[in-house]
Amino acid sequence: MSSIAQKQGFGAMIWDYLTTVDHKKIAHLYLTSGGLFFLIGGIEAMLIRIQLMKAGNDFLSAGTYNEVLTMHGTTMIFLAAMPILLAFMNAVMPLQIGARDVAFPFLNSLGFWLFFFGGIFLNLSWFMGGAPDAGWTNYASLALASEGHGIDFYTLGLTISGFGTLISGINFLVTIINMRAPGMTYMRMPLFTWTTFVASALILLAFPPLTIGLFFMVFDRMFGANFFDVANGGNTIIWEHLFWIFGHPEVYILILPAFGIFSEIFAIFSRKRLFGYTALVFATILIGFYGFMVWAHHMFTVGLGATANAVFALATMIIAVPTGVKIFNWLLTIWGGSIKFTTPMIYAIAFIPSFVAGGVTGVMQAIAPLDYQLHDSYFIVAHFHYVIVGGVVLAIFAATHLYWPKMFGTMLSEKLGKITFWFFFIGFHLTFFIQHFLGLMGMPRRVYTFGADQGWDLFNAISSVGALFMAIGVIVLLINVVITTVKNERVGNDPWEDGRTLEWAIPSPPPFYNFAQTPLVRGLDTYWIEKMEGNKEGMLYAEPLEEIHMPNGSIIPVIMSFGLFVASFGALYFLDGDKSWPLPVLILGLLITFGSMLLRSLKDDLGFHISKEELIEDAKGGKMDGSK
Amino acid sequence: MDLNKRYTPQTWPDHPETATMEGKNKFVGFWLLLAAETVTFASLFATYLALKDKGPSGMEFAAADLFELPLVFAMTMILLTSSLTSVYAMYHMKNHNFKAMQAWLMVTVLLGATFLGLEIYEFNHYVHLGFGYTHSAFSAAFYTLVGTHGAHVLFGLSWFIALMLRNAKRGLNTYNAPKFYLVALYWHFIDVVWVFIFTVVYLMGVIG
């Protein structure tokens, strides 16, 4: 191990990130690529709003509009929101439970690279004959009729990135089950760890139905199967079921970690123990549980019958109960606290009314007869943007500010952070609040234009102005990132001064082995307890200083994922039937993937050890970089 | 972890598969993977049941006429036996009897390969009857469900063989014990899935 740090060259840094299995560096990778996809999805959103700015606009053609709309939804859900949340889970969760790394560092890296190559593959569709255009839900009746290769990019790209997400889910579950520090019982885990746990369980059980649905779609479109072809006995509703059995838990996969982030923020900046910790934990579990029983509320108008609709309507309304429990717990955490209005905290406070608004419209749609009115209108668009943007995106921005010092060792500017907040928050409500009324006035979702005589001009124009505000907010955030990185003012262990959990007890950024000695946990809010008792070191230790075992880096995850990426191109063009190269490419890609899998299996990889002397040296300010 | 450490049946841990942290993690992680696999097959079964006997109007194939139980029953017995022999292998693994373990694994692989051969024969037979993959929704659902299981068998066999060859010279240690344990667990899972296929596809199919 090359333990003494030199000034790293650029090439060495790239190689380091390609081969890393360190959860903190993988978090950087997720944040960067998720952020990139977030910008792409944001540009697509702006194109949508420009097109709908006025009646009869011809900025985008109908076909292009369908592509932009599809890619906006798909990118934001699969390639932006989820990976960015995975970035924070990776960066923070192992620290919160006092672990040196995740359970499967190699798989952690593989999960990232699968997501990355899947996302790139999906986005290459823009340059290779057209993007998918059947909406992010990709309903079979639309998708089967779609010309060109857009849908194939969607199915193959999401299959690859879905495998990556599934792997991450299993990894986090095992990490939380097996790797908690001594004393870190389940009921002492920070709320963000809890929500990561439940969200990972949802990933585990929700992604397989999506994968199967995508496989059916691939087989139908490429190999002439008839799953969804009604003329040959198929049934398009099967896609809808499989998609929503995945799709509904998916929204909880997104929102639960967001809840976790806000729970951390409320406690930290109210400088109070979280009110009703136990209730919050059980509400999280209940939401995860009910999340699997409500998928058909997306299909009320399909015609499943009154009984099915009634059952799913009731189940949907029940979910509002644990969610309400959470809202009240957060309010009571703030109540009587000594509040600091930092940037993360104002996001958290803004989140409550925004998300409640989204939740209320959700319960409205749970009323099946009313849903017949609301279905496929802009009311739905307004609803899900209120929960996704008002919940998940606000959480992502809040966490970016909160955890930036822990991830990069320097603080984002609070001033610019608040400017971002106001632009984004005002822009968000300006854009989407009015869409409720557009929906009630009858504007259907997914239309590329509307007539001047329909009376939707003014509200659409206002909505578009709001989108501009949001874009300005994001641009200010980017400027903030650049300025902060250039200034690079280093911060200590606990830059917010009120950190409560273990991640704030160690340096920012933490050394690659996280904890020189495994901490001993004595209760909820471990670090806070030690601080209150005047423990200068911030934690108690469960073991003496001794040799640490660490995993080796590996390039294999990149190669394995790249193999699937290559194979996908082969599969995509294979059934055009007029080319000779796709089959060899398909086989080559699969050979790369399975070959590297075999290599990984046959080659012993035992990791390496950091000696006690090196740890002592490192604590004095020497620098080990952990690369091999 | 020291790969050169030599074990005897006396020093061999009671649960070699979870004797190390890596082993413990793999153990839990693999059970979770099997949960995901269960949902995968549940989706396939649900689709199969929805599309059973569905095809273009006037379709001449139906499950009741197509499937013949004797062959499938033989396949079932062979696969169930292979699960038993993999249990024997794990019994010897736990007693640190490497040679006996390898021998029983070999038997397991041979039985699994026989099963796979018969499945290929069965598919081939149906295709020659005119019941191809693109024939109908029923055929697509049938081949995808049973074929996915077959792909799992193939993967399991490759995994068994890779492990047997890789460790042929060096015997058992706490580094490779979890690997043998997990592939056996995988094999049992494949077996359980087949029991459901035999029941839902073939038995319920023949009843009509």
UniProtKB/TrEMBL annotation, chain B:
Domain of life, source organism: Bacteria
The keyword S-adenosyl-L-methionine appears for this protein: no
Keywords attached to this entry: Cell membrane, Membrane, Transmembrane, Transmembrane helix
Compartment(s) of residence: Cell membrane
Main location: membrane
Keyword Membrane: yes
Residue ranges annotated for the Heme-copper oxidase subunit III family profile domain, each copy included: 1-206
Transmembrane segments: 30-51, 71-91, 103-121, 141-165, 185-207
Coiled coil segments of this chain: none
Family: Belongs to the cytochrome c oxidase subunit 3 family.
Name of the protein in its database record: Cytochrome (Ubi)quinol oxidase subunit III
Organism field: Planococcus liqunii
